[in-house]
Amino acid sequence: MPAQAINDLRKGQVIKFNGEAHLVMETQHRTPGNLRAFVQVKMRNLRYGKSLDQRFGSTDSVEVLATEKKTLEFSYADRDSYAFIDPNSFEQIELPATLIGDAKNYLTANGKVDVLFVDDKPLTIELPSAVELKIVESADGVKGDTASNVQKPAKLETGMMIQVPLFIKEGEVIRVNTTDGSYLGRA
Length: 187
Description:
This protein is an all-beta fold.
């Protein structure tokens, strides 16, 4: 990909910085008093997830990487990889467990995820904000325990344990927040 002037850099683009792919989260063009203009870029390393602020001179240029976001459907998990199907081309794409990370706690058959591809290599996985999961194991609530906000542990179909209200029973389908793993309500 050709170099692009730093002044033309936009939020959402992926650039190569120090040999790694970085997602641009914010750019600010500044011209302080009698100093040279510069561009302050807030970006996140797509391999390690670390954010950093970097200052570039206004005449600098960066390499912008080609990106593509695909919505894939989860098919099955193997030992070290997770298989997804592209619903448009029906192509099977395998992603390593290291890329999936904690997202595995929210993957169910035919569940949809967005995968960001940079130069045709999968780099990040994005879950929907909430998913519906079935409770496979949960203790019954204690009769008479009616204090508000009392919760009990429940095991979900993906193996993840979360806290749910006492009235939720085994076999029910609930909505779970994918950012913090909290109970949102019945599905």
